[in-house]
Amino acid sequence: MKDVARRYGFAATVVMVALTAFWVLVLIILPYLFLVDASFRPSLPADQVGGPNDHYTLQNYLTLLNPNATKEFLFLSIPIHLFVFAQTVAISCLVTVITLALAYPLAYILAKVVNPRTVATLFLILLIPLWISELLRSFAWYIILAYQGPLNALLGLFGISPIRWISGYNGVIIGLIYTYFLFMLFPIYGSLTTLDSNQIEAAEDMGARWWQIHRRVVIPHAKPGIASGCVMVFMMCAGALFVPRLLASPSSRWFTEVIMQWFFEGLDWNTGSAYAFMLLLVCTVFVSLMIRLFKVNLTDIAR
Amino acid sequence: MSEGVQLSGVSVNFGNFRAVNNVSVSIKSGEFFSFLGPSGCGKTTILRAVSGFISPSAGSVRIGGQDMAGIGPNRRPTALIFQNLALFPLMSVWENIAFGLEVRGAPRAARRARAEELLRLVDLPGAGDKAIAQLSGGQKQRVAIARALAVEPKVMLLDEPLSALDLKLRQHMRAELRAIQKRTDITFIYITHDQGEALAMSDRIGVMSQGRLQQVDTPQRIYENPANGFVASFVGENNVFNGTLDDIQAGVGTFTTDDGEVLRAMVGSGVKEYADAKLYVRPERVTLNPVSEKAREGANVVAVKVASIAFEGNFINIHASDKRGRRHIVQVPNDASVWIPPVGTDARLEFTPDQATILTENLPARAGEDDVGVRQGQSYRVEVAQ
Amino acid sequence: MQKLTLGKILANGFLGLCMAYMVVPLIIMGGAGFNNSRFPSVYPWRGFTERWFEDLWNDQRMLDAGINTFFLALAVVAMAVPIGTAAALLLNSLQSRMRPLLFGILIAPILTPGVVVGISTLLFWNEFNIPAGLHLSALGQVSYIATYVMLLVLARLQSFDRGLEEAALDLGASHGQVMRRIVLPHLYPAIVLGAVLAFFQSVENYNITLFTRGNAQTLTVYIGSMVRTGFTPEINALGLLFILITIAGVVYVEIRRRRNVRRELTLEALAAIEERRDLQGMAP
To answer: C103 and A299 in contact by Cβ < 8 A?
Structure first.
């Protein structure tokens, strides 16, 4: 702290420390602590809060495993909320993998194949969907995927009969990929721009095949970008609320919708907090998994 | 008005590393003083201690007799010219120059007028509204000088300001800096690793190595009477003989080289009899003579064979190897009267005892004793002359 | 002349498909705003109409939500920009081992789902009997938007020469003057970009706002509520407006960028001329 005061003077240091402390404590750490605290307390009427019944309990988390409401899956009977949770995580992983598969080649083409002037223009065009609300981005697919919508009409020209796109999680997957695609593209592109093209040429010169070049040269260099993109896309998918509400069939629920239900319909904030904490936990696990897997650090992920 | 700067026993530690070790020197008012040394010798650290960016771990810095302890860089009567100049890129030329006045609350018109005045002083009239990015390297240099002069410092500190320029411009700016210093009569403390710069511009030079001040003296005496082996080899070129000092008589030592040759030379301060030492002699103080000619009375003689000849323009370097194969350089003017033997010729290297010095490799300077060695060196030089 | 390989053709084809994939849905969404159909659609096309724009203009609830959104975004900018900038300056000059820990805490909000941020904000302030409302939405949004501002400012600080601060101090500037005249002007582009980004992020935020808003409406919450009541092409009209505003913003930024590049190139050329003149002037 002394080095800061020496550099910017006492007054400015006090202001900077105060603003940062407000952010860290009041906006980040304390709210998280209150979330965790609430998730371990029973939901009580206002007059009983702080009373004898207000003690720490695991009940809210056990609700996730409630055996009274189950879902048949293969030959298993799984508690419904746990099932939604698992499905949310699984589909988020799937969407992350698909976006990665689409974004990596595009990022490579933009960084290494297309000439930089064209790329500048292309990026300007890509900024438009990025800066428009994700609500509007997913709303576009609500129109496109409608049963009597333009996509089915187009397929009709090729003699393909209409498909019910918004059924199960199909619509959600399509919508999530579109909505968060750019959050995968930009970090990977960013890490690839720092790759010296001579390295690729040197590898070509030594007779490496294209897939060997990617596996040994390009992908290792793009690791921080890939990790960053995967973390962002997974987090946004698992935490998405509007896309599943808009593009899923009513029976296919998303974990965030369950949380919302506890808050606005069940009026049980404590169980809602426990569920929200589960969501936070799974994102944290995903981040640490990525850091481990790609051997990057947190600084690489936030860029 | 300018002020002198006194450093007494200044040490600066960075963790366990002692960057500056017990440096004491008194820089006179209006003097052009250079700290000369290789990179990492602590010279920049001294400058930062004088300007106030770091406080010494021990010792004191006085400017004009006033102790600077606890006084921040913005309240010291110094102006620093940074190695990369540190011109403010978002301000125009005149705003840069007038920045020191702006922060002191001078009105805009006065600032502008003063900036124009200084621009004339540094020979850049009418450049006030230009952007920094459109200036040449030399012009940036002048703007940096004008900006420092604008705050009317008592002491000007310069941290290798010419190192970014190319050779020709650098030589040109040397003369200009010196002229500005004479005109403004401000104390200049100049940091450089370039001995040519230090020798050409300074009133006095402090040679530094490993955080210690090795010698403080005028450029001429630094060159002619280096206090120790480090100064001798860092400033200018030298032919070096390793050996032992056998005997001292009236300041002249008898020296036996590792090859068993006996040479005579001046003895530097602090060198004891029977000590391992080195004998230094400048290439331009050595002559090369045919074996057939008779050697001069009292001169040292070393038998050599001409190994190569390097034409340097205004002078010629003849490289000759002795019987052990060690190279020596003889520098001769590019002049038809000088004997230039072909490669392979046997020849005789000659130098008189008063042209050579016997020194130990390193003489750690102790606080307050910086000038002593030199005074001794001076005195026995006088004896020899008599 | 570049040779046209199969790889190049494939790459360009893929690039074209991707660009179309990103842009066409937006055109469809915007286009549906002109379709004379009760539901948002482009197919079947029932004729051109401007009535959805008129409806949008006359929709009092939408207008109120829009005003709320605007002021909420202003409040977020007013908080997130100073907080993010202060934290960036602090992080940048901290040398202790605290630095990675603090950095980790400060980027956590962008790695946290908005739902979680919204809920924890709601719970925290509820504990002090502060009811939900747009003020909580602002605080919740600031907690992660300030991170974006901080990252932008940190990136800009990378290109800052600390020598400039020292030069200003050496010339007699106070710490406050160094901040005002040297540091902040250098950070200015990042701060402006941060403010614009913060504004847009706030406008489009849905998850945090939904949990913290109380009974107040914002545009996103209002649009979100139509999942139940049904959409009209008014939303498409609104979407088209957003697209146009974004395009205008992007074009403006690009024009400024090009002007800057031109200016820099001009200055560089002028400096090269001066350089040559210097060398000639010195010839004996």
So the answer is: yes
CA distance B248 to B346: 32
Domain assignment present for B232: no
Whether A59 is covered by a domain: the verdict is no
| 152-191 of C, contacting A, C-beta below 8 A | 165, 174-176, 178-179, 183
CATH 3.40.50.2300 fits C62-231, yes or no: no
H or E, element range at B36: strand B32-36
CB B99 to CB C161 under 8 A? no
B249 lies in a domain? yes
Q: Kind of pairing, strands B262-267 and B356-359?
A: parallel
- Is the predicted pLDDT of residue B77 greater than 70, yes or no? yes
Q: Does A11 map to a domain?
A: no
C chain contacts of residue B72, beta-carbon cutoff 8 Å: 169
Tens digit of each residue's pLDDT (9 = 90 or more) over C5-27: 788 888 999 999 999 999 999 99
The pLDDT score that the predictor gives to residue A226 is 94
Tell me the mean pLDDT in the region A123-135: 88
Q: Are B259 and B305 in contact (CB under 8 A)?
A: no
- B162, part of any domain: yes
Query: How far apart (Å, rounded) are the C-alpha atoms in residues A186 and A230?
Result: 11
Q: Looking at residue C140, what is its pLDDT?
A: 96
Same domain for B213 and B275, yes or no, is: no
Give me the CATH number covering residue A88: 1.10.3720.10
Q: Is the pLDDT of residue C284 over 80?
A: no
| Structural domains of chain A, count | 1
Instruction: Look at C254 and A283 and tell me if their CB atoms are within 8 Å.
Output: no
Task: In whole angstroms, give the CA distance from residue A185 to residue A103.
Answer: 5
Check: CB of residue B346 under 8 Å from CB of residue B303.
yes
> How far, rounded to the nearest angstrom, does the alpha carbon of residue A132 sit from its chain's CA centroid?
17
Is residue B131 located within the same domain as residue B257? no
Nearest to A38 among C25, C89, C123 (CB): C123
Would you state the pLDDT for residue A24? 96
| A294 has a pLDDT exceeding 60 | yes
| Owning domain of residue B145 | 5-224
The answer to the question of residue A296 being in a domain is yes
For residue C62, give both structure tokens.
């939408």
| Each residue's pLDDT tens digit, B129-185 | 999 999 998 899 999 999 999 999 999 999 998 887 888 888 888 888 898 898 888
